[in-house]
Structures are given as C-alpha cells and as structure tokens.
C-alpha cells in the first residue's frame, strides 16, 4: 500500500499480487479476544478543560460524546490507562493549547510520568508541530485522533489514529446488481477536476457524477458499479465507508504513500481496496492503464467477489452510531487507542 518513488506514473500496489486472505483482519485470532479484554478493562480519565468542546464537523464530536458517555470513562486517574485532553479543535490557538498543557504539567502528576505519552486528544485537522515546547510535547508524545485524511505533516504514523469518515446516510442493505452496468463510479468531488477526470468522463465504462447526489442516489450508483474511485489527499473520500459496505471495491488514486488509513491497525486494507499510484508529473493520464488494473483485479469473478466480500465484512466497522454498537467505528477507534495504552511511566524524581 505504501508507494515508493517509482517512475511509472501508474504503479500498482494491488491485492492480486499478494496471497488473498479470506479475512479482512490483520490478526483475526487476537482481535476478538482482545476486544473483549478492552471492554472489560480499558479506562480513560478525562481532564476537564476550559477549552470547551463544540465543533460542527461530524465524526469528531460523535466520538467525543460517545467517549464521555461510555463505560470506558473513569474519574479515578489511578485507574486510568490513558488520559483524555478535551479541547475544541476549531479556532484553538497555539497559545491557549500551550497554556492548557502547562496547566496539566503543573497541576497534575500524570503528564510528567510520560511527558504526555499516555494522553490523547482529538483534532479533526491535526496539530502542527510548531515551536512551543508544550504543544510540541503534546504533538510528539500524545496520541492524536484526527479526521481522515490528515495532511502528512500533521500525522505521525504508528502513533496517531484517524477517524473513519462519517456519512450521515442510513444504511439499508441492498442487493448487489447481478450485472454491473459500470466498471467504475466517481462520485461528485471524489476526484478533483483535472485531466484524469476528463478522461474518465469520456470513457463509457465509467460513470462520473458532475453534481452532488443524495444518499439514496449515491447508494444506487454504488450498487451498479464494480469499483468506486477516490482520490487521496485532494478528493472527497467520505464515500469510502459506503463503498465498502455496499460492495463497491474502493480504488484509491494517490500520488504519495498513505499512512493514515482509518482502522489501519485492524484491517488489511490491501485486501479490500485497490491502490493506484498516480504521478501527475507525467503528462496525460492513461485511463487504459487504470482499466487494465481494474480488469486484472476482477480477473475472474471469484477474485473480485472475494475482494468485495472482505470490504463488506470490514465495512461494518466504519459505521458511526448515535448510541455506539459493538464493533462499530467508535469501538474500533477505542480499540486502536487500547493498543497504544502501554507506555513507560517514570516515577517522580525528587530534585534535591
Ligand atoms: C448515554 O448512555 C446511555 C446508556 O449507556 C444512554 O441511555 C444515553 O442516551 C446516552 N446519552 C447520550 C447523550 O448519548
Ligand atoms: C473562528 O475564528 C474566526 C476569526 O477569528 C471567526 O470568524 C469564526 O467564527 C470562529 N469560528 C468558531 C467556530 O468559533
Ligand atoms: C513536572 O515537571 C516540571 C519540570 O519539567 C516541574 O516544574 C513540575 O513541577 C512537575 N509537575 C508536577 C506536578 O510535579
């Protein structure tokens, strides 16, 4: 899935070159027992913060309100595995963040034990590194939960987590069309206006929406298409959840390595999506080449069916619920936090 600097403008990082797994999970034998352990033992202590949390974006406040109303919460910091630092990620200035971290450092003993490594915060856009010592420590040590996709300079791989994008539409299981009418579908905004989208529009095998569509219309498009195309970084990837759930294999077109995929610690993304490297440095995008990739992935309906099936299985973990349900997006983000709970805590050293 990680693209290296390959001169070919379309380089392929595809499931078909790897052995095909019949599970979308990275470690199916440990995920389920560990999930149960997490439910039983994971505890989060929330600081109260003057930087009140209220944001208009979607999955971010839902995650926070679900957390604050969950049984993961403890008001006893001695029981806590992790500490949650709440602040509104909209309009929060580096200076007020700095003051907040400073207050935690001086008012509580917990920050100093790990310099923030057993702390986490939610910031949809992600924080920048900056030069302030407090913010830098927060950024470098604490776990950041941001929205997908997050700009590469605001995301620290293996430490940070992204929220599965949330699409409000209700989920109504649909029967997959027996015969797909389209090879690929591009939702409005999913790929930015440039030469690639022009070529896709001109190709009768692709269905490209040039206007926003309501949820039902979108789901119908998904139903009759084999692949759903998205552009990482610039396009709108919020439909990727629905594409997975409804069995439209996501094709992610990207010009750089992707290190912030949602649920990356849990799922084998390579098995349920197609990643196509696209180097815009080369003039002219060859849709023919893209099609060859897709036909190879479909090569035989068995193979396509399996890739698709894994996506459908994984898709349930991307669902956000007002009242969290087992194994839904909220719980899977909590699971990823739980995986990060082990940090070395230093005993307080008395300075003579
Ligand atoms: C909080 O959780 C309880 C059940 O644990 C639920 O009945 C209640 O509606 C939830 N409140 C909010 C604001 O989601
Ligand atoms: C953020 O700040 C800008 C200017 O300082 C202001 O116009 C905007 O309303 C603020 N947004 C929120 C959500 O407070
Ligand atoms: C944390 O460490 C700083 C020194 O970096 C110290 O000044 C501060 O008092 C410590 N905080 C607590 C609560 O002991």
Write a brief structural summary:
Residues 1-22 form the signal peptide. This protein has 12 helices and 11 strands.
| Continuous helix count | 12
Give the percentage of residues in beta strands. Answer: 5-15%
Indicate the percent of residues in helices: 25-40%
Q: What's the count of strands?
A: 11
Shape: elongated
**Straight-line N-to-C gap:** 52 Å
Strand arrangement across the biggest beta sheet? 1-11-10-9-7-8
Q: What does the radius of gyration come to?
A: 22 Å
Family: Belongs to the glycosyltransferase 47 family.
Subcellular location: Golgi apparatus membrane
InterPro entries: Exostosin (IPR004263), Exostosin_GT47 (IPR040911)
Keywords: Glycosyltransferase, Golgi apparatus, Signal, Signal-anchor, Transferase, Transmembrane
């Amino acid at each position: 899935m990680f693209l290296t600097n390959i001169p070919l403008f379309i380089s392929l990082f595809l499931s078909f070159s790897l052995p095909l797994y019949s599970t979308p999970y990275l470690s199916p034998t440990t995920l389920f027992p560990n999930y149960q352990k997490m439910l039983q033992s994971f505890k989060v202590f929330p600081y109260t913060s003057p930087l009140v949390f209220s944001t208009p974006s979607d999955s971010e406040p839902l995650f926070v309100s679900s957390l604050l109303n969950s049984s993961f919460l403890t008001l006893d910091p001695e029981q806590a595995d992790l500490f949650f630092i709440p602040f509104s990620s909209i309009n929060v200035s580096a200076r007020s963040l700095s003051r907040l971290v400073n207050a935690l450092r001086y008012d509580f003993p917990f920050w100093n034990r790990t310099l923030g490594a057993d702390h986490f915060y939610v910031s949809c856009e992600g924080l920048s590194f900056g030069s302030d010592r407090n913010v830098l420590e927060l950024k470098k040590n604490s776990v950041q939960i941001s929205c997908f996709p997050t700009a590469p300079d605001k995301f620290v791989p293996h430490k940070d987590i992204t929220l599965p994008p949330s699409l409000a539409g209700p989920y109504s299981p649909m029967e997959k069309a027996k015969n797909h009418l389209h090879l690929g579908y591009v939702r409005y905004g999913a790929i930015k206006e440039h030469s690639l989208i022009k070529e896709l529009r001109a190709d009768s095998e692709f269905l490209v929406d040039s206007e926003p569509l309501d949820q039902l219309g979108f789901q119908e498009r998904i139903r009759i298409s084999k692949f759903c195309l998205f552009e990482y970084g610039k396009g709108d990837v919020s439909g990727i959840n629905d594409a997975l759930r409804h069995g439209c294999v996501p094709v992610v077109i990207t010009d750089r390595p992707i290190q912030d995929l949602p649920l990356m610690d849990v799922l084998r993304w390579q098995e349920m999506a197609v990643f196509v490297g696209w180097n815009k440095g080369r003039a002219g995008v060859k849709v023919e080449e893209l099609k060859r990739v897709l036909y190879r992935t479909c090569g035989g309906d068995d193979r396509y069916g399996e890739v698709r099936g894994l996506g459908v299985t994984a898709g349930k973990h991307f669902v956000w619920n007002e009242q969290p349900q087992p194994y839904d997006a909220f719980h899977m983000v909590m699971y990823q936090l739980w995986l990060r709970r082990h940090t070395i805590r230093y005993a307080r050293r008395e300075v003579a």
